[in-house]
């Protein structure tokens, strides 16, 4: 009896494998790319249509290789991740793409190719994108990369980048909008910010004692004598320097 049950189970599995993977009982009936911009839909469709195509209408949906689709679409430099879902009953394959996440635009000296723009990603790595691809990422994502803060670094050292990101993450918490960051080294970080409807050039020194520096800046700018201040040096927060020039 056990042997008969085993044989029946094997036969059932083989039948299901054939039904799903080789028969036309569950074919691909439609391909949906979840993207509002039609120019991006066309680009993604063209990429998936290149031989050998990973999705073909009419082929068994079980044979759609999600890994191959993801790998292929991630060759588009602005694409960070790809989600693929298969519906066996409707026969629909749904694809959505997630653009890379950039937090700052690098100054031109980091780009070896003049037609490419450099960015600092959320993974703290540099990446470079042709200008035409930047527009596509902006259309597909939630942020316009060209409106990101400009970043000028003295080196690509990880510790320097981490310090810059700490400051950039903290400034919005006090209501500051960052226009640019200049960081030749870890002890000389400067920003151009918009803070309480004022454009300010702020020298932070290092990112140590940021809470104290924020408090000192707020109190300085509350003083009537400083209503025309344009520059603030908080490198030494207990001995700040302000300037109207």
Summed up:
It contains six helices and twelve strands. The chain has 245 residues and is an alpha/beta fold.
Largest sheet: spatial strand order: 6-5-4-7-8-9-10-11-12
Shape designation: elongated
Radius of gyration: 27 Å
Termini separation (Å)? 94 Å
Total beta-strand segments: 12
CATH class placement of the largest domain:
Alpha Beta
H/I helix tally: 6
* Class inferred from helices and paired strands: alpha/beta
Unreliable residue runs = 14-23
Q: At the fourth CATH level, what is the homologous superfamily of the largest domain? A: Cell division protein FtsQ/DivIB
**Count of spatially separate domains:** 3
Task: Describe the model.
The chain is built from six helices and twelve strands. By secondary structure, the protein is an alpha/beta fold. It has three domains: 74 residues, Roll (Ubiquitin-like (UB roll)), CATH 3.10.20; 49 residues, no CATH class; 95 residues, Rossmann fold. The strands form two sheets. A nine-stranded mixed beta sheet has the order 6-5-4-7-8-9-10-11-12. The protein has a three-stranded mixed beta sheet with strand order 1-3-2. Strand 11 and strand 12 form a beta hairpin. The radius of gyration is 27 Å and the shape is elongated. It starts with a helix and ends with a strand.
């Amino acid at each position: 009896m056990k042997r008969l049950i085993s044989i029946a189970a094997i036969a059932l599995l083989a039948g299901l494998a054939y039904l799903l993977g080789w028969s036309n009982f569950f074919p691909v009936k439609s391909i949906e790319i979840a993207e509002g911009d039609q120019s991006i839909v066309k680009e993604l469709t063209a990429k998936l249509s290149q031989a050998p195509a990973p999705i073909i209408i009419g082929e068994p949906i079980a044979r759609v290789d999600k890994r191959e689709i993801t790998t292929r679409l991630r060759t588009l430099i602005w694409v960070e991740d790809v989600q693929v879902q298969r519906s066996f009953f409707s026969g629909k394959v749904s694809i959505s793409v997630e653009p890379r996440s950039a937090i700052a635009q690098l100054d031109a000296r980091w780009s070896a190719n003049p037609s490419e723009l450099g960015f600092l990603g959320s993974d703290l790595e540099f990446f470079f994108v042709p200008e035409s691809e930047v527009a596509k990422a902006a259309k597909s994502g939630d942020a316009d990369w060209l409106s990101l803060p400009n970043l000028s670094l003295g080196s690509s050292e990880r510790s320097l980048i981490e310090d810059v990101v700490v400051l950039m993450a903290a400034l919005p918490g006090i209501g500051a909008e960052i226009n640019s960051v200049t960081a030749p080294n870890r002890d000389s970080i400067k920003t151009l910010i918009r803070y309480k409807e004022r454009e300010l050039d702020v020298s932070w020194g290092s990112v140590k004692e940021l809470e104290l520096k924020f408090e000192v800046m707020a109190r300085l700018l509350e003083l009537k004598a400083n209503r025309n201040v344009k520059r603030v040096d908080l490198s030494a927060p207990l001995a700040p320097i302000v300037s109207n020039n």
